[in-house]
Design goal:
Blueprint lengths: L3 E10 L2 E11 L4 E5 L6 H8 L6 E4 L6 H7 E4 L11 H6 L11 H13 L15 H14 L4 E5 L7 H16 L3 E5 L3 H7 L2 E6 L2 E6 L1 H4 L2 H8 L1 E8 L2 E9 L2
């Protein structure tokens, strides 16, 4: 059963389609990386899929009532600003709201598990607004994890994180997939996407131009036509490496 199904999803600004008739499915056990240059439609696609903005076509999530949708998918937007003077633990606990306000053992276990997953146990009582930008980003990821939804949708989740935290976050997503959850995440780092995603979807000017295994999607032809990169593809023991040689005119 798919965690997300999109058929012909289209989002317009005026008469111009920003996302143009995209079909997409994400299944349990997958980490699907959404790639494309700036303005390709990655964020708009996810927001349209969630019903946060008006869209045409079919989205299995947007069709759900709000609380059911929040139980089906956790959303981590690009905006990492924390405006509330809550403790880290209380902010992470907000991820449990779709499940009620009972403070049950299951709620407490989910909150503690999310704090541990993002290495935030020692920050639990600290005010979230007093943390650094990277630490706040980890708090918001933990809030999404505490939701325990079958699908995590994360828009540029590793932006602003240090290299170790970036890799740890993507390894965490891989663990979610091994636990039969699904992840759809937009990324800009092509090498991290190639190494940590089970599947990649490439957007350009709002259209899906490739969908498949990383080595197929990140072909020399696609890198040239979509990203304007002259790049060599190198197979290593650790996986596929994209070695940019220059920018094409």
């Amino acid at each position: 059963m798919s965690a997300l199904t999109l058929r012909g999803l289209t989002v317009r600004r005026g008469a111009c389609p920003v996302v143009d008739a995209v079909d997409l499915s994400v299944a349990p056990g997958e980490v699907v990386g959404l790639l494309g240059p700036n303005g390709a439609g990655k964020t708009t696609l996810m927001r349209g899929a969630l019903g946060l903005i008006a869209a045409d076509g079919v989205s299995s999530l947007a069709a759900l009532p709000p609380r059911a949708r929040a139980r089906a998918a956790a959303w981590l937007p690009q905006n990492r600003e924390i405006a509330w003077g809550l403790s880290v633990a209380d902010l992470v606990a907000l991820g449990r709201l779709p499940h009620g306000r009972g403070g049950t053992p299951a709620d407490r276990a989910a909150i503690q598990g999310a704090l541990a997953a993002m290495r935030l146990e020692t920050f639990a009582s600290r005010r979230a607004t007093a943390l650094s930008g990277g630490e706040q980003a980890r708090v918001l990821i933990a809030r999404a994890l505490a939701q325990e939804a079958p699908l995590l949708m994360a828009d540029e989740p590793i932006a602003g994180l240090d290299p170790a935290a970036q890799i740890a976050t993507l390894e965490l997503f891989a663990q979610l997939a091994r636990d039969r959850r699904a992840v759809l995440t937009s990324l800009h780092d092509l090498n991290l996407a190639a190494r940590h995603c089970t599947r990649l979807v490439l957007l350009d000017k709002g259209r899906k131009v490739a969908d498949g295994a990383p080595r197929d999607v990140l072909s020399k032809t696609n890198l040239a036509s979509v990203f304007r990169l002259d790049a060599a593809l190198i197979e290593t023991d650790a996986g596929l490496v994209i070695d940019p040689r220059g920018v094409l005119a």
